[in-house]
Amino acid sequence: MASQEDIVLKSMIRKFITGCHILHYHRVLDAYGHLSFRHPSKPDVFLMSRYIAPATISSDRDVIEYYVSNAEPVDPNSPPGYSERCIHSEIYRRYPDVQSVVHSHSEAVVPYSISGTRTPVFDIAEHFQPDDIKDMLVRNTRLGAALAACFADTPTATSPDHAVVLMRGHGFTTQASSIEECVLRAVYTQQNASIQTTALLTHAAHFSAAPARATDAQAEVKYLDEEESQASGVMTKWSAYRPWGLWCREVEASGLYVNQA
Ligand SMILES: [Zn+2]
């Protein structure tokens, strides 16, 4: 008979697979990028897929347990995994409350990693050592720890101050306290980047054509202020299950995705 722990883990693996499918359905992940979650009863272990495209993950046989301490598989005979799993391990290692992580190469977001933004940007070039392969991938725990540090404003913080960190010329990573919230943050990071791009382009087109008519208030793109941003973050947290229910139905109704967990 399955233990309560086994039942909870099985349910989370099923949710994880659905999360991978949702992220693909919304084009946050393509053949690359990944979702992970912390083991519900072993906080020093996290789980993510073997080395396949997220849309094709279909059962618990595709899921590997890794140690948070070093990103090595719990079972040494596990199938090959993603080379960038150190992104995930180091975020779980530094921030005990983080339960889920998404890493994406979303084309809507990457431009902001090289064009300047107030969102923290991890520049891997500042952390390369001579022996590192300089292909922008976070291939070891040292680079993963440097990325994880960008989520906090102070070197000793054990809770993240930022939901998202951009990665120069590469993509972004987000973390959250549940799989549902992490998927939501990833989907809306992409959607918000698209909105911001459209706002910036619209603004530039309008005011470059008629600069003399622009008042000071009209001449700037108006972002959420700190209080609006904080309150919106709280609202997003409690409302995360509404889009999740819709997104589950979308991937269930699609012929592409299989979830046998
Ligand atoms: Zn990557």
How would you describe this structure to a colleague?
This protein has 261 residues and is an alpha+beta fold. It has a single domain (4-254), classed as L-fuculose-1-phosphate Aldolase (3-Layer(aba) Sandwich). Helix content is 40%, strand content 12%. The chain is built from seven helices and seven strands; from the N terminus they run H-E-E-E-H-E-H-E-H-E-E-H-H-H. The protein has helices at 4-25, 85-94, 110-115, 141-149, 179-209, 226-238, 241-253; strands at residues 34-38, 45-49, 63-67, 100-104, 121-122, 164-167, 171-176. The chain has a seven-stranded mixed beta sheet, with helices on both faces. Helix 2 (85-94) crosses helix 4 (141-149). The longest helix is centred in the last third of the chain and has 31 residues, at 179-209. The protein is globular and about 70 Å long. The structure holds zinc ion. Zinc ion is lined by residues 84, 103, 105, 137, 170-171.
What small molecules does the structure contain? zinc ion
Compute the average pLDDT. Answer: 93
What is the chains' assembly state? single chain
- Major sheet size, sense and barrel closure: 7 strands, mixed
CATH superfamily, called what? Class II aldolase/adducin N-terminal domain
CATH architecture: 3-Layer(aba) Sandwich
Fraction in beta strands: 5-15%
What is the β-strand count? 7
- Name the helix and strand elements from N-terminus to C-terminus, one letter apiece: HEEEHEHEHEEHHH
* Unreliable segments of 5+ consecutive residues: none
Which CATH top level class fits?
Alpha Beta
Briefly note the structural class of the backbone: alpha+beta
Distance between the termini: 17 Å
Helix percent band? 25-40%
InterPro entries: Aldolase_class_II_sugar_metab (IPR050197), Aldolase_II/adducin_N (IPR001303), Aldolase_II/adducin_N_sf (IPR036409)
Protein name: Class II aldolase/adducin N-terminal domain-containing protein
Keywords: Lyase, Metal-binding
Pfam family, one: Aldolase_II
